[in-house]
């Protein structure tokens, strides 16, 4: 009986997780096999089997939006990790005005995504946006930031970097401040310079935090919707249509709930596969760093 006691403590959390995770996924799987227009009773839904999955796999728009999403996540998350780690290494040192700098860097993350989208849509406005005004002061012609496919994609990436680099900063800074000073002292006594201390001591120790941060930002990047919904609504063309926005359009504009459920399952499979791949790759790296 004593062996079952630990499981009894985690049972409530397990039940909540099952109710909040497994049931919605099972419900989405069931819905993907039906043609169910929005606003009608489910009793009127028509069973179509795997028709939604076939349509999804044959749709060029699906793979275009997935390509845009993969490029966006790779570029934005990579930049956020590099900037976040660099800022964390800078802010871990005793610098005058440290509290001010930390508050300033964390502020973007505290703003609601809809507000972030509105702010940056105004900043990138071709007619009266402050960014074009600043370019005019240095002799550069105004740019149609949100009307050009390349510039709009860059604006989307820049906005995400601005908002979510502070998250990486907080996570890495917490890990760095938890380092045992005796470890760093031993590295200094062994003759390690500043760069060697960062590469061979600090980063390997905080590697688990970096992996968790990478997974959190990658998953959040795949499901990002509000900011790009306000800024460009996926335009011009499909240049900024993230896969989550494509799912939104399928559900609430085309009103194809079954098809949008199939798209959601595809997104879940891709994100799960990428997350598993990152974890499998990180385990050998973690073991190598300990040697």
Q: How would you describe this structure to a colleague?
A:
Keywords: Cell membrane, Membrane, Transmembrane, Transmembrane helix, Transport. The chain crosses the membrane at residues 7-26, 66-91, 103-123, 135-154, 228-248, 260-281. Belongs to the binding-protein-dependent transport system permease family. The model has no long low-confidence stretch (mean pLDDT 88). This protein has a two-stranded antiparallel sheet with strand order 1-2. It has a single domain (62-290), classed as Orthogonal Bundle (MetI-like fold), CATH 1.10.3720. It has 291 residues and is mostly helical. It has 13 helices and 2 strands, in the order αββαααααααααααα.
Main attributes?
MetI-like fold; 74% helix; flat; 13 helices; mainly alpha; two-stranded antiparallel ribbon
CATH superfamily: MetI-like
The strand line-up of the biggest sheet is 1-2
**Distance linking N and C termini:** 41 Å
Record field, number of beta strands? 2
Family: Belongs to the binding-protein-dependent transport system permease family.
Membrane topology: Multi-pass membrane protein
Main location: membrane
Keywords: Cell membrane, Membrane, Transmembrane, Transmembrane helix, Transport
């Amino acid at each position: 009986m004593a062996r079952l006691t630990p499981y009894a403590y985690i049972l409530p959390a397990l039940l909540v997780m099952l109710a909040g995770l497994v049931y919605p996924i099972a419900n989405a799987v069931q819905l993907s096999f039906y043609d169910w227009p929005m606003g009608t009773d489910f009793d009127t839904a028509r069973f179509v089997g795997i028709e939604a999955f076939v349509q999804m796999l044959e749709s060029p728009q699906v793979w275009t939006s997935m390509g845009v999403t993969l490029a966006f996540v790779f570029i934005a998350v990579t930049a956020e990790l590099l900037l976040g780690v660099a800022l964390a290494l800078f802010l871990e040192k005793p610098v005058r005005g440290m509290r001010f700098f930390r508050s300033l860097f964390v502020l973007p993350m505290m703003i609601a995504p809809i507000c972030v989208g509105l702010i940056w849509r105004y900043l990138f406005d071709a007619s009266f946006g402050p960014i074009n005004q600043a370019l005019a002061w240095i002799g550069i012609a105004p740019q149609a930031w949100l009307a050009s496919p390349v510039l709009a994609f860059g604006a989307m990436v820049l906005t995400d970097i601005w908002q979510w680099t502070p998250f990486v900063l907080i996570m890495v800074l917490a890990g760095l401040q938890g380092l045992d000073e005796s470890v760093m002292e031993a590295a200094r006594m062994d003759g390690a310079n500043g760069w060697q201390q960062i590469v061979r001591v600090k980063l390997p120790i905080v590697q688990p935090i970096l992996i968790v941060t990478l997974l959190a930002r990658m998953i959040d990047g795949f499901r990002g919707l509000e900011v790009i919904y306000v800024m460009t609504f996926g335009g011009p063309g499909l240049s900024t249509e993230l896969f989550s926005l494509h799912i939104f359009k399928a559900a609430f504009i085309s009103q194809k709930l079954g098809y949008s459920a199939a798209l959601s399952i595809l997104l879940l499979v891709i994100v799960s596969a990428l997350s598993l791949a990152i974890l499998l790759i990180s385990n050998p790296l973690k073991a190598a760093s300990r040697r």
